[in-house]
Amino acid sequence: METLIFAPAILFLLLLMPSLMLGLIAKTKAFVSGRRGPPVFQPLHDILKLLGKGAVYSETSGWAFRLGPVLSLSAVLMAASLVPLFGAPLISFNGDAILFIYLLALGRFVTILAALDTGSSFEGMGASREAAFSSYAEPALILVFASLAIHSGSLSLSQMFSSGQGILPAPSVLLAASGLLIVLLAENSRIPVDDPNTHLELTMIHEVMVLDHSGPDLAFILYGAQLKLMLMGVLWIRLLSPSLASNAFLLTLSLCGLAIFIGAIESSMARLRLIRVPQLLIAAVCLAAFGLILAVR
Amino acid sequence: MQELSQILLVLIALFSFYALGNSSLIGCIRIIALQGMCLGLLPLIIDRQGFGMQIILIASGMFILKGFLIPRILSYAIREVKIRREMEPLIGYNASLLIGVFLIGISFILASRLPLPENIRTSLLVPVSLSVLMMGMLMMIVRVKAVTQVIGYLMFENGIYLFGLAISYQAPWLIEMGVLLDVFVAVFVMGIVINHIARAFDSINTENLTNLGD
Question: What predicted TM-score, i.e. pTM, was given to this entire model?
Answer without folding.
Answer: 0.89
